[in-house]
Amino acid sequence: EDYPNAKVEQHHHESLKAGMTCPECQQGKLYNVTPGTVISFKGNAPIQAIKNEYERLRCALCGVSFIPQKIDLLYLERFDPIAQAMIVLYRYGGGFPFYRQAKFQKMFKCPISTSSLWEVSDGVYQKIHPVLNYLYLLASNSNLAYIDDTTMKILTKEPQFGVICKILGTKSKA
User: Which of 32, 43, 67, 90 has the greatest CB tally within 10 Å of its CB?
Assistant: First the structure.
């Protein structure tokens, strides 16, 4: 009900059907129970929800429930890699805070809480942290770095000692 625009995907049990004998107790019959639902998110602009409805079977005698095996994976990875990248890029590349992303998603009838957005962002950080540390190591051991994000025009390549002394407040030797 929270995701009226969500695409619905049906997932059936791989080997069991209603009416079959229970594999657990070998006596009871399986019957359908209300389907379960897992909401997962796919990266598009904006992020889209997918409503995964899965078949649940229960034994009439022993009460054991059975669900498709791939549903466990949906619980572990609710946000696909593109959705994760978009959340992080919106936040840190575009300066789009989580509360604003949550409002934006709600406008498109695909609400995602700010805490979920933070958890996704933190998960991405945990995955890229070793790579980031290695890049820091490489940069710290390099002889020269060409990074300048200013729009100031560089007039000479060589630093002018007198200008540096004025900035630092020391006297020039020249």
Answer: 90
CA 38 – CA 70 distance, rounded (Å): 11
Element (H, E) at 150: none
Q: What is the DSSP string of 47-106?
A: -EEEEEEEEEEEETTT--EE--TTHHHHHH--B-HHHHHHHHIIIIIT---HHHHHHHHH
Cβ atoms of residues 98 and 86 within 8 Å: no
Model confidence, pTM: 0.66
Q: Give bridge partners of residue 9 from the DSSP assignment.
A: 52
- Compute the C-alpha angle 93/94/95, nearest 5°: 100
Give the span between the Cα atoms of 14 and 45, in whole angstroms: 33
Q: Whole-angstrom Cα distance, residue 55 to residue 42?
A: 22
**3 state DSSP class of 132:** helix
Please write the tens of the pLDDT for every residue from 50-99: 998 999 999 999 999 998 888 877 777 889 999 999 999 999 999 999 99
Which residues, other chains included, contact 81 with Cβ-Cβ below 8 Å and sequence gap of 6+?
A: 43
